[in-house]
Amino acid sequence: GVCGCCGALRPRYKRLVDNIFPEDPEDGLVKTNMEKLTFYALSAPEKLDRIGAYLSERLIRDVGRHRYGYVCIAMEALDQLLMACHCQSINLFVESFLKMVAKLLESEKPNLQILGTNSFVKFANIEEDTPSYHRSYDFFVSRFSEMCHSSHDDLEIKIRMSGIKGLQGVVRKTVNDELQANIWDPQHMDKIVPSLLFNLQHVEEAESRSPSPLQAPEKEKESPAELAERCLRELLGRAAFGNIKNAIKPVLHLDNHSLWEPKVFAIRCFKIIMYSIQPQHSHLVIQQLLGHLDANSRSAATVRAGIVEVLSEAAVIAATGSVGSFASTLPTYQRSEVILFIMSKVPRPSLHQAVDTGRTGENRNRLTQIMLLKSLLQVSTGFQCNNMMSALPSNFLDRLLSTALMEDAEIRLFVLEILISFIDRHGNRHKFSTISTLSDISVLKLKVDKCSRQDTVFMKKHSQQLYRHIYLSCKEETNVQKHYEALYGLLALISIELANEEVVVDLIRLVLAVQDVAQVNEENLPVYNRCALYALGAAYLNLISQLTTVPAFCQHIHEVIETRKKEAPYMLPEDVFVERPRLSQNLDGVVIELLFRQSKISEVLGGSGYNSDRLCLPYIPQLTDEDRLSKRRSIGETISLQVEVESRNSPEKEERVPAEEITYETLKKAIVDSVAVEEQERERRRQVVEKFQKAPFEEIAAHCGARASLLQSKLNQIFEITIRPPPSPSGTITAAYGQPQNHSIPVYEMKFPDLCVY
């Protein structure tokens, strides 16, 4: 009582707290006295909890008396004390602070709610030095979530944004603190996530309203939808493996608000989710979507269609992003395993199975192929491996190059880019992004190393396979500029990374063969493709001539390029590979001065030690069964021109049927028959599988037993013939009924001629 009556006898901390409040609240916080209070709190940290308790007492009294100016001063003082003090006694002070924030949030005044939220956000950004074992944020999660759904007439947007900021503060304060109540529990996620989705959903509605002049500047800075999206991304980005399900489960309840049917909002939500979570967690989202689809098996078709649409979008993101961002951080040996795994899953046509087609006639496997090849390209980008035999093993290279022969132009381009990513080990790839005939390639500043022994072994084993696919890719009618740029980059990188003298010779032969393709035009290529092949050959020979540094070779290439510049610029990359190509309508009868001559190149390189005999040989690719898949082989290469039918009679009565004359109808029938045989074989296999799946066990056992008996009888006949003693050399004897019968005698009683004894 004495202390209450005499101000001089009041505790010092109370006097210092009272002194920060001015007589008129509009004057604001007394700064000099606030500095004294801060210095006292830092000098005597044991008094900090009492300072907080007294400030809380004054604030509660001022709120009850509607003295909101002093309320703002008290919160400002609390904020400054929080920022300045990080001692061990801060926990008790924080309890008083949170009590005051809760008091403001409970108020019906929107301005007080916003004030309390702003103070909490400042507190959430402070890293505390000491942990807290008993602090709870349940009230704040509930209150901030309630504010996110505010429908206040005047300050609706401000209150919603304050609620979102408050939830963001709670997440930041608790997500990495293991001592706090788990924010990922369903009881919290079921409030936080729907509140954020509510503001995402009402973005159009909020933007359609005409805000008041006071709200316009705030809205121009950031809308509730943008802030909610940023908060949701931050929340999902912090989610660990065990917390993903609790964070995603509230999103699946879009069916409670009929939000699967328009599909637009659902797809947007799951795109945010897939791009925010860690890539290795993508499969968990896919699993939850699949489970939700099963749970809605009896729902309306529109709902299930919306879920399927979202699932397809999520699967595309998971396939294209997760394997590549995730695998790029792995060590080399593990990335190699990932690469082999992806390539093994890329569908490719089989020699004995037709390509599946959908209702529109498109390949059903195309989307899968593109997604997996995109993932493979991401993994291969930046892949560093000194040994090409390890980077491109035979089983991987065979599957990859067989995919390069497909008719789909996009898939072929992916394959070329993947090969470039593997071969480029010195970062030269971007230097060949533009096809040109530079007079001095030193400006490119290429990084060139001597071909290693491992690279030489790799090229001896796989070079012809690579050349063949490059040659066939050049002949594609559906090629565009990107394909020719990729082919030029691939040729250039092979020359830099993997080339010895033998490889250089073969690459020159290959490019000259490509020039012949454009000149002869047996493939009936369009004018652009022919000009592109001429230009591709000019660019590469210009590059390789300067890499070999043989003066006579460089001179020949330079002369042809200069002649083309004057007489046929449409045969050079500078006129072809531009936005508006300048082409010639007549490419027949190209004069020899415009062509790179194999005899001349062989002569000049032979004088410098290169294998001139090999240079003189034209390049001819070896055709394999893979050409049948890509429909590159002609009918004449797959069906013999003459068909001979042998009689089934005995050898004594064998007669030859004259060679059948081949006509168009015969060839057509052969093709149709082969397709029919394949269809019958597939049907037979299907019936066998179905029989073993559905037939009774007794029937299957009887069927197998009959086949076993037949096999045994055949084996007995073979054994009988094999072990039967040979006939007697003396001839035959006549048995009953006048039938001749061989007379068998033991081997040891036979008499052999003298010449057989030695």
Automatic annotation (TrEMBL):
Which InterPro entries does the annotation name?
A: ARM-type_fold, EFR3-like_ARM, EFR3_Homologs
Cross-referenced Pfam families, in alphabetical order?
EFR3_ARM
The Swiss-Prot or TrEMBL record describes its family as follows: Belongs to the EFR3 family.
Check the record and name the PANTHER family matching this protein.
Answer: PROTEIN EFR3 HOMOLOG B, PROTEIN EFR3 HOMOLOG CMP44E
What is the name attached to this protein's record? Protein EFR3 homolog B
